[in-house]
Specification:
Blueprint (H helix, E strand, L loop, with lengths): L12 E12 L2 E12 L3 E5 L6 H8 L7 E6 L2 E2 L8 H6 L1 E4 L11 H11 L4 H14 L15 H14 L4 E5 L7 H16 L3 E5 L3 H4 L5 E6 L2 E4 L3
Parallel strand pairs: 3-8, 3-9, 6-7, 7-8
Antiparallel strand pairs: 1-2, 1-4, 4-5, 9-10
Helix pairs in contact: 3-4, 3-5, 5-6
The chain binds adenosine-5'-triphosphate.
Length: 232
């Protein structure tokens, strides 16, 4: 553990953010955010548009670097992570991007299968797992389709299936139900609750009031880059 803040031990936390600030030029996207997320917690992140939800998730999946402060993920200081550890860490994090980020040259099946392929799973294991996920998100009939032929909601379902396919320890989902009707949103949330029940830590950024109030999960609220409610 490489922690500048040894006085603040929390053995249950899998994610620890200490006084994290993120600036984009003069724009303050996150302002002095401190947050612990326990292993196997299911947490919602909410707040108005521009509050910093996507930025916070981006810092956790290492799509961006922090300006000040420290993030420990599974005890590893993200600012000091050797480059060679990066693929290992990323394999343990499933991400549902706000804009899906499916690979346009791969089919739906192959987009979902990629994580398992990289992890060295065999064809039979991949077929079984991807088949199960496609059935669950009701996209079996589109297994051979390419992303550009899918609706936003369909791409979102594929993105969620892809994020959980490799059984990651941590799942970070940015508005995973944003483009979905109520029934599709329910299916997606069931998948996320399912991977949580199997031991994963799940963070979901959402504006969706109905979703937030449908379960008794911790809700962390951001406003203008600051945490205004830790939901504890
Ligand atoms: N790459 C960037 N360059 C400049 N400013 C950025 C960048 N990314 C985010 N910001 C700014 O940082 C602030 C936080 O943005 P962020 O996308 O994290 O908000 P959000 O809470 O996820 O919003 P939304 O709910 O609309 O997705 C906003 O003011 C945004 O304009």
């Amino acid at each position: 553990m490489d922690n500048q803040y040894p006085e603040l031990e929390n053995k249950n936390a899998i994610i620890r953010m200490f006084h994290v600030t993120k600036r984009y030029g003069a724009q303050l996207a996150l302002n002095d955010v401190s947050l612990d997320v326990d292993a196997n917690e299911f947490l919602f992140l909410t707040g108005p548009s521009g509050a910093g939800k996507s930025t916070l998730l981006k810092l956790l999946y290492l799509a961006d670097t922090i300006s000040e402060g420290q993030i420990l993920l599974k005890g590893m200081n993200l600012s000091r992570l050797p480059k060679k550890r990066l693929p290992f860490l990323r394999r343990n994090i499933g991400v549902v991007f706000q804009d899906y980020k499916l690979i346009p040259t791969r089919t739906v099946f192959d987009n979902i299968a990629l994580v398992m392929e990289v992890a060295g799973a065999n064809a039979k294991q991949i077929k079984r797992k991807v088949g199960y996920l496609l059935r669950t998100v009701e996209m079996e009939h589109k297994a051979g389709a390419f992303p550009q032929s899918l609706s936003g909601g369909e791409q979102q379902r594929v993105a969620v299936a892809r994020a959980i396919c490799g059984d990651p320890d941590i799942v970070l989902a940015d508005e995973p139900t944003g483009s979905l009707d109520a029934e599709s949103a329910r299916v997606i949330m069931e998948l996320l609750f399912g991977i949580h029940a199997r031991g994963a830590t799940v963070m979901v950024a959402t504006h969706d009031e109905a979703l937030l109030h449908s379960t008794r999960r911790r809700i962390v609220t951001l406003k203008q880059g600051s945490v205004v409610d830790l939901g504890l």
